[in-house]
């Protein structure tokens, strides 16, 4: 078949992608962009797999290494975002398990992982659930409904 293909008044250009030839390593590349969870030593992998799946259905994502979970919570005021962060900080102090948090004008990014033993643990799962419960109480909103300042996308 030669391009451009003439069809009366219309002409069809050569397709950009040749669909008949498989793209090498496509499955490999897809696999590496979707990390598998890596649970810490001593954890129950069956229980944690199921708990992690449930969290993913609640908007949590595995981090790049599969050793932690992350989620951004959105709020309609900076005060609510700060209150949420403080609520998490208080529980972290009680449970002796601490997240990495980034606060913005109308959102908070939360990342839970366990440093020792290294990997995802039941503590990360429990505290991620605590975040979801607290976000509900403080009045988190859907992404896009939160307060925004400047050109930031989050
Ligand atoms: C002694 C103290 O409880 C430990 O160092 C705690 C502190 N907070 C922690 N937080 C997190 N995220 N992972 C840990 O392994 C951890 N260890």
UniProtKB/TrEMBL annotation:
Keyword Methyltransferase listed: no
InterPro entries noted in UniProt: PCD_sf, Pterin_deHydtase
A Pfam cross-reference name: Pterin_4a
Catalytic activity: (4aS,6R)-4a-hydroxy-L-erythro-5,6,7,8-tetrahydrobiopterin = (6R)-L-erythro-6,7-dihydrobiopterin + H2O
The entry's keywords: Lyase
GO biological process, one term: tetrahydrobiopterin biosynthetic process
Entry similarity comment: Belongs to the pterin-4-alpha-carbinolamine dehydratase family.
Protein name: 4a-hydroxytetrahydrobiopterin dehydratase
Species whose genome carries this gene: Penicillium frequentans
């Amino acid at each position: 078949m030669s391009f451009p293909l003439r069809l009366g008044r219309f002409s069809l250009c050569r397709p950009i992608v040749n669909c008949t030839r498989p793209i090498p390593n496509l499955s490999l590349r897809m696999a590496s962009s979707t990390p598998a969870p890596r649970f810490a030593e001593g954890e129950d992998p069956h229980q944690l797999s199921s708990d992690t799946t449930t969290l993913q259905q609640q908007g949590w994502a595995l981090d790049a290494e599969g050793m932690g979970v992350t989620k951004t919570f959105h709020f309609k005021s900076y005060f609510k975002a700060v209150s949420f962060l403080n609520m998490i900080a208080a529980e972290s102090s009680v449970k002796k398990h601490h997240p990495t948090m980034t606060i913005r004008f109308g959102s908070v990014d939360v990342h839970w992982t366990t440093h020792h033993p290294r990997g995802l643990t039941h503590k990360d799962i429990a505290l991620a659930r605590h975040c979801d419960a607290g976000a509900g109480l403080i009045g988190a909103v859907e992404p896009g409904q939160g307060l925004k300042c400047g050109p930031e996308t989050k």
